[in-house]
Design goal:
By secondary structure, this protein is of the alpha/beta class. Helix content is about 45%, strand content about 10%. It has 14 helices and eleven strands. The chain has a five-stranded parallel beta sheet with strand order 3-2-1-4-5, sandwiched between helices. A two-stranded antiparallel sheet has the order 6-7. Strands 8-9 form a two-stranded antiparallel sheet. Helix 7 links the parallel strand 4 and strand 5. The longest helix is centred in the first third of the chain and has 32 residues. The protein is flat.
Length: about 475
């Protein structure tokens, strides 16, 4: 028996299959309506469009996910996911082609045909995989398991593994020396005391043993573990971290020394750190070299025409690991504002100029921060940097506040696209923001950043009611 999740292989097969379907349908539509489409996308060695096309599918599938791993899933739910995946992919594709002007190569009838063909093909593919997964679950052999211990950890093992039909695990019973009134498991599953385990193993077929005994008591499991190792029975030990750690932890080994980290930090891995920094340099560099000069000219003229003072506003903020840096913005308030470093902007703030109000509403005032990104003080995505005064105040208000500084601050972040942008009026606003920031740090991946960026663009277009 293997407790590691087996479903990711199904996900990989489904994603590869659907990616092939998307590309096949594109070629099919091209073959039927080739006179409407530009040959340059498919011939002449230019494959940039195909790379982008497949990237839009990956973004779409990450947004809506694959839910075939759920035991009670109905095909109507799978059908709904297929619709959303296809429409999201086409929506991103259509929007970018419209921005670049290449939409002329894809008339409406071509788009419509592609959506219909792809949707039907993906439905057939997902239905076949849905049936295959159900067949595999139905005919999988049950693995037999016994548990050592009967406390809360043992109960959670039963609920997570044995009561989950996806795992195909049969709980034979449990052994413990505790009195019955102190046990969390059903008394009908009790097979005896710990001294009875080896005798039971000799007389019955058991494939796995999970030890959930509390610290200090687990030494009683040593002879059982040795017997299991010598008789091809897998033995698992569940350390009871929950006595003092109410969340997931990360276990690493330094030589043969086990080290428990309080949290997983994907960006502490060298490869992930390099990917994020390269993306930051490319994204900010491209933006600063192309779009930013035009934005700067228009914004600078507007700011200067309305009020005296500099175009840029720089302010000391708390950055990576608590280091201070100067954060750049387009000036959105009156010049000479003495409260700029002390008081956060509020709704209908008299300090904000008319031009500034528009800049803040559309987040254009944040654009100069891509200079900070290029220089390495910030990242495109990360926890938003707070003023020094705010950091000094908030660290006293919220436990673990400083954890948000384990990574570089960002131009945008998960908290900002999740409804925690703008003025902090109550403690819950700050706590919600910190929770989102810590969740981002613990769950980072490259496509997570892409989703946050796309949602930021969306909110910039439709408007964010908390942006003022």
């Amino acid at each position: 028996m293997n407790f590691k999740k087996s479903f990711p292989i199904w996900k990989l097969i489904i994603v590869i299959g659907e990616m092939l379907i998307f590309n096949l349908m594109l070629w099919l539509v091209y073959a039927i309506w080739h006179r409407y489409m530009s040959y340059r996308y498919f011939f002449g060695g230019d494959y940039h469009f195909l790379v982008f096309f497949n990237l839009t599918y990956l973004i779409s599938i990450m947004r809506w996910n694959i839910i075939l791993h759920r035991s009670s899933i109905r095909f109507s739910q799978v059908f709904d996911k297929v619709i959303k995946t296809v429409l999201t992919q086409e929506g991103i594709l259509f929007f970018v082609l419209w921005l670049t002007g290449d939409i002329v190569y894809f008339p409406l009838r071509v788009m419509a045909a592609f959506i219909v063909f792809t949707f039907l093909a993906c439905c057939v593919w997902r239905f076949a995989m849905w049936k295959l997964v159900r067949f595999q679950r139905k005919h999988s052999k049950l693995s037999t398991l016994i548990i050592l211990g009967s406390g809360e950890v043992a109960k959670e093992v039963q609920e997570r593994f044995c009561n989950n039909v996806n795992n195909k695990i049969q709980l034979v019973g449990y052994f413990d020396d505790e009195e019955q009134d102190k046990q969390s498991l059903d008394a009908s599953l009790r097979l005896g005391n710990l001294d009875d385990v080896i005798r039971f193993l000799k007389e019955n077929t058991v494939e796995s043993i999970v030890c959930t005994l509390p610290s200090g008591e687990d030494r009683k499991a040593l002879p059982i573990m040795n017997y299991a190792e010598n008789h091809l029975i897998r033995f698992y030990l569940v350390p009871d971290f929950k006595r003092f750690l109410p969340k997931k932890v990360s276990l690493e080994f330094y030589d043969n020394i086990p080290l428990v980290s309080l949290r997983e930090e994907p960006l502490e891995r060298w490869g992930n750190k390099m990917i994020k920094r390269l993306f930051d340099i490319c994204f900010s560099g491209l933006f600063l070299a192309t779009i930013f000069p035009f934005i700067f000219i228009v914004v600078a003229i507007a700011i200067k025409a309305e009020s005296k003072g500099p175009v840029f506003f720089k302010q000391k903020r708390t950055g990576y690991r608590g280091r201070e840096f100067y954060c750049l913005k387009f000036r959105s308030m009156t010049s000479g504002n003495k409260e700029a470093d002390e008081k956060q902007a509020t709704k209908n703030d008299a300090r904000i100029t008319k031009v500034g109000r528009f800049l803040r509403k559309t987040s254009i005032d944040e654009m100069p921060q891509f200079i900070n990104v290029f220089l390495g003080d910030m990242s495109v995505v990360g926890p938003r940097p707070h003023m020094i005064r705010q950091t000094e105040d908030y660290v006293q208000l919220v436990d673990k506040y400083m954890l948000r500084h384990l990574q570089k601050p960002g131009v945008t972040g998960l908290a900002q696209v999740s409804g925690f942008r703008g003025e902090i009026t109550k403690r819950e606003d700050l706590e919600g923001r910190i929770q989102k920031d810590i969740f981002y740090i613990e769950n980072w991946n490259f496509f997570f950043d892409i989703r946050i960026i796309l949602k930021t663009v969306y909110l910039g277009i439709v408007g964010d009611k908390k942006a003022y």
